[in-house]
């Protein structure tokens, strides 16, 4: 999958509501070729998940320091 190379494992495995977000997105669209817009959307969602993970880690560090 040329357009999805470089997405970190933790981003690919990120769960919301019991679903792996990126896997669910692709599964829902698996029976057809993705448009450029859908590919770009997928990449943006992956970037948002990566940033979410960063924020969670930052918050955990702050909480540990405050204890």
Q: How would you briefly describe this protein structure?
A:
This protein is mainly α. The protein is built from three helices and two strands, in the order αββαα. It has one domain (2-66).
| Tally of helical segments | 3
Spell the H/E element sequence.
Answer: HEEHH
Sheet bearing the most strands, described? 2 strands, antiparallel
| Helix vs. strand class | mainly alpha
Distance between the termini: 44 Å
Shape: elongated
Biggest sheet, spatial arrangement of strands: 1-2
Give start-end ranges of low-pLDDT stretches: none
Oligomer designation: single chain
Helix percentage range: 55-70%
User: How many structural domains can be distinguished in the coordinates?
Assistant: 1
Mean pLDDT, nearest integer? 88
- Nearest-angstrom radius of gyration? 15 Å
The count of strands amounts to 2
**Beta-strand residue percentage:** 5-15%
Task: Write a structural description.
With 67 residues, this protein is mainly alpha-helical. It has one domain (2-66). 64% of the residues lie in helices and 6% in strands. It has three helices and two strands. The chain has helices at residues 9-12, 21-28, 36-66, and strands at residues 15-16, 19-20. The chain has a two-stranded antiparallel ribbon with strand order 1-2. Strand 1 (15-16) and strand 2 (19-20) form a beta hairpin. The termini are far apart. The mean pLDDT is 88.
Characteristic key phrases:
single chain; 67 residues; 3 helices; 64% helix
Would you spell out the secondary-structure blueprint of this structure?
Blueprint (H helix, E strand, L loop, with lengths): L8 H4 L2 E2 L2 E2 H8 L7 H31 L1
Antiparallel strand pairs: 1-2
């Amino acid at each position: 999958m040329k357009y999805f190379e470089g997405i970190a494992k933790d981003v690919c495995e990120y769960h919301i509501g019991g679903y792996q977000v990126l896997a669910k997105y692709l599964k829902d669209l698996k029976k057809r070729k993705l448009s450029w817009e859908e590919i770009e959307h997928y990449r943006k969602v992956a970037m948002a998940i990566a940033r979410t993970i960063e924020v969670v880690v930052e918050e955990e560090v702050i909480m540990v320091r405050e204890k």
